[in-house]
Amino acid sequence: MKHKKSSKKNGCLIALEGGEGGGKTTQIMRLTRRLKKAGMDVISVREPGGTVISEQIREVVLSSKNVGIQDTTEVLLFQAARAQIYGEVVIPALKAGKVVLMDRTRDSSVVYQGMVRGFGRKLIEELNEISTQKTRPDLTLLLDVPVKVGLARRADSGKVDRLDMEAKDFHEQVRKAYLTLAKENKNKGWVVVDAEQTEGEVEKALWELVSQKLKI
């Protein structure tokens, strides 16, 4: 079976990655406001989610009621949600020259399912290539925070999902895996940001990186 070739991009895809409680959602909102103020054509989306179909998948894969979900099912549901949002939103936006901010994307699957769940990075990347139509972020910002701090933030927010409920060791493995990816890709668009700082300090750090990337 032949898959679509890599889509030509005119826009810029910026991904915020990291474990639970790093502040990705808050910082995406702040970055979006700043970019719009700077006159940029920008959209922000989250994974899983971002479309009607992808949000329905999100409800299934992250619901705290579905603790019995199989790891293989988790892998495929995340990829299905990704395929939908890339085909419906992300790729068209990039072709239109927009800046796309993503609250998680393909590297979340590499970390959570490939490295921590044990499916292997090679398999997950093969699936990622299909679901994203070979689209990769131009800049990946890793919001790194100690697990204890991140989980405490999530608990305080009152928004605990199925993955938040995993054991502390699971989240420690996630953090270690993310830092490994960042180290391997430090010259390929990955930057680690200390997310234990205040929201304002993190916002300032992210804005410096994004504005430099976009030359604004």
Strand content: 5-15%
* E-strand count: 5
Low-confidence stretches: none
N-C termini distance: 42 Å
Helix count, per DSSP?
8
Rg on CA atoms, Å: 16 Å
* Elements, N to C (H/E): EHEHHEHHEHHEH
Summarize the amount of helix as a percent range: 40-55%
SS content category:
alpha/beta
- Major sheet strand order: 2-3-1-4-5
> What is the 3D shape?
globular
Mean pLDDT: 93
Structure, explained:
- Helices cover 54% and strands 12% of the residues.
- The mean pLDDT is 93.
- By secondary structure, the protein is of the alpha/beta class.
- It has a five-stranded parallel beta sheet, with helices on both faces.
- Helix 1 (24-37) packs across helix 8, helix 4 packs antiparallel against helix 5 and helix 4 crosses helix 7.
- The chain starts with 11 loop residues before the first strand and ends with a helix.
- The protein contains eight helices and five strands.
- It has helices spanning 24-37, 52-62, 71-95, 106-116, 121-131, 147-157, 168-184, 199-214; strands at 12-17, 42-46, 99-103, 139-144, 190-194.
